[in-house]
Amino acid sequence: MRGDHQTLALLLFCAFIAVTLFITTWVSRNRQGSAEEFYAGGRLFSPMENGFAIAGDYMSAASFLGISGLIALFGYDGMLYSVGFLVAWLVVLLLVAELVRNCGRFTLADVVAARMAERPVRTALGTSSVTVSVLYLVAQMVGAGSLVALLLGGTSDAARSWTVVGVGALMVVYVSFGGMRATTWIQIVKAVLLMGGAVALTVLVLVHFRGDVNSLLTTAAERSGHGKDFLAPGLRYGGDWTARFDFISLGIALVLGTAGLPHILSRFYTVPTARAARRSVVWSIGLIGSFYLMTIVLGFGAAALVGSAEVRSSNAAGNTAVPLLALVLGGGEGSTGGTVLFAVVAAIAFATILAVVAGITLASSASVAHDLYASLRRPGRKQYGEVAVARVAAGIGAVAIALGLLAQNLNVAFLVGLAFAVAASANLPALLYSLFWRNFTTRGAVWAVYGGLVPAVVLVLVSPVVSGSPASLFPGVDFQLFPLENPGLVSIPLGFLAGWLGTVTSREKPDEAKHAESEVRALTGAGAA
Amino acid sequence: MEKEAGATAAGVRLDDPWYEASAAGWGEADGEGDAASDGTPGPGEPRPAPSAAEIYLEVHRSAAFREVRRRYRRFVAPAALAFLLWYLAYVVAATTAPGLMARPVAGAVNVAMVAGLGQFLTTFLLTWAYARHARLRRDRAALDLRWDTQEMTRGLGPDLANGPGPRTTRGPGR
Question: Which pTM does this prediction carry?
Fold first, then answer.
């Protein structure tokens, strides 16, 4: 890649960092270090602001780079991600958002632990939330790695790695100083930038084909080298039954995972009421839905204008399809338009990754401090201690950044699919049971979490993702036992089963008063924080 | 062009009904809201300071609360089942019936494309329907119950209400 791309992209990128740095210092002026402030931004965001922030948190590198890349490479099969990522929001809207807002204070564990023995439940959910966050962070850092590789093509691997590490570390610093308020504003800025970028590119693609979607699709099919098959399911997940079950597994993980993502759940606490939480979800569904419609156009656009082969040669997993599309749309390599557009898109993608890193880092530091630390230490400490721990725990981000450097050859959307599978297996069963099942007990909750978390993680470790195939993380060794890449099909039912089994085998009597209290709170908002 | 318009239209269309009805819902008593708050124990009734657990049990048993819960469940259960089945059918059809999914509908657009876009459409529609249902049929009654419950539990100590009174009385905006 040529020098002027790099300069311009780096300039824009520095501008984003400057803006977010300014936001962080601005919003954290005169702020007392209360837990309410650090975890929930004072709970005073409006539904629209929070809706943009949710969209910002959710539309990660996986969406912008990963999905479009998968569509550019595999055509229709990539579209499943768009559909699944969106439909998942109905689970959040209908079953989770309002009730979680009413019952909890800062984290997922607040909701489940409300009518249980607190310590074991908090420890379990804290562990699973941190696991999900780390997996999700790894995916983001892989996206960042692909982008940096594209931007700084000529430089050494070490330089690239240090760029990613340095920038990730910066986000960790933002979170530990600015807390939820700064993180939310970063998400809002990023969501606006990302929507703007996606709209601009989509319009350019459609203008290029003079609004003729049919010719866009036909050209995409021709240049993909697959012909008509490109527009029908089966290119990636067709063929043998293993691949087909993988597709179903992924589909289930996507639709059930969102409601178990810690950084999404914690967003509902930044608004004052359950009504406001619902309205923010309605906003975010509008934004996210239109965004995913655009990623479909961008994916087919990249196949039609860049060509699948060229996308693959730039990044084997397709993560760089959109920046390449921008280059072509602006007039091709060497032209001013191409350079500017490429730089803008690369900077937006980078901003996207950083904002999501900030959001997840905050959520995982909340899990560590509010759930793990608080339940493992003696009770009755001062609030101040917990927030201080949370600031330090933001360092989890650093661990994930290091892991992310290992996994550069995996598709971002695919990695996020794994995080979703773990979230759906470990967090969702405990959450749904505690909201809707009168007899759910402490043992049921603990079993539900570990019964989903352990199989999900173990199945990923023995899957073709980690070993046994040329495309896996450690291609040299082979300890693959499980055929599917995504564990959701097995681990999600296991999580629900374990929760049910734990509940029916425990001798704990269901406490009717506690159940009445949690149901009244959930549906009316009485006594909500 | 079309997509850009879609982006803004979706946001506006989904959110707009909110404003219109939140004004109507708060202003005057509509029949449904009243009916739902009938059985609530009033805050004025004299009783020898009950414990928090008793208050919650009482509210939980009240007709008003049961009505709110019934309305919530009657909407959510069938809706959740319907969209999950429709989504599952879509995923399974893509894997087991690729021939059907590849059948052309118009030009390059095939059944699979139509089904995928149909998922987007049903998601938007259900979001709108749920928000509307909650706003018109549930919000007011739930809010009444919330005030009544908080009124009854006031003064019972901080173990009951997580947030102090003034915090929770703030409106939905900033």
Answer: 0.85
Q: Tell me whether residue A344 is exposed, middle or buried, using C-beta atoms within 10 angstroms of its C-beta: 0 to 12, 13 to 18, 19 or more.
A: buried
Cβ–Cβ under 8 Å, residues A99 and A365: no
pLDDT exceeds 50 at position B169: no
Residue with the bigger pLDDT between A91 and B27: it is A91
Contacts of residue B69 in chain A, CB cutoff 8 Å? 519, 523
Q: What is the mean pLDDT of residues B65-90?
A: 93
Q: Which of A50, A287, A520, A521 is the mutation pick for testing B, counting most B CBs within 10 A? A: A520
Please answer yes or no on whether B101 and A89 come within 8 Å at the CB atom. Answer: no
Q: Which domain holds residue A181?
A: 3-86+104-232+256-416
Q: Of A62, A63, A145, give the one whose Cα is nearest residue A401.
A: A145
Encoding tokens for residue A137?
A: 């962070």
Give A118 to chain B, closest Cα distance, Å. 15
Residues of A in contact with B72 (CB under 8 A): 523
The kind and range of the H/E element at A391 are: helix A383-393
Q: How far is B137 from chain A (nearest CA, A)?
A: 13
The verdict on residue A455 lying in a domain is no
- Contacts of residue A359, defined as CB under 8 A and 6 or more positions apart, other chains included, come to A56, A57, A183, A187, A263
Is residue A463 a part of any domain in this protein? no
Closest Cβ–Cβ partner in A87, A232, A276 for B83: A87
The residue with greater pLDDT, A155 or A126, is A126
- How many CB atoms are closer than 10 A to CB A245? 17
In chain B, residues with a C-beta closer than 8 Å to the C-beta of A251 are 87-88, 91
Task: Give domain status of residue A499, yes or no.
Answer: no
Q: Residue A195 domain-assigned?
A: yes
Task: Parse chain B into domains and list their residue ranges.
Answer: 30-157
**Chain B CA closest to residue A272:** B172
Tell me: pLDDT of A410 over 50.
yes
Is ipTM beyond 0.95? no
Q: Which of A90, A297, A523 sits opposite B123 (nearest CB)?
A: A90
* CA A472 – CA A138 distance, rounded (Å): 15
Mean per-residue pLDDT, A127-142: 86
Over residues A52-82, the pLDDT tens digits come to 999 999 987 777 888 898 899 988 888 888 9
Res B130 pLDDT > 90: yes
Query: In this predicted structure, what is the pLDDT of residue A65?
Result: 83
CATH no. for residue A373?
Answer: 1.20.1740
For B57, the closest of A516, A521, A524 (CB atoms) is A516
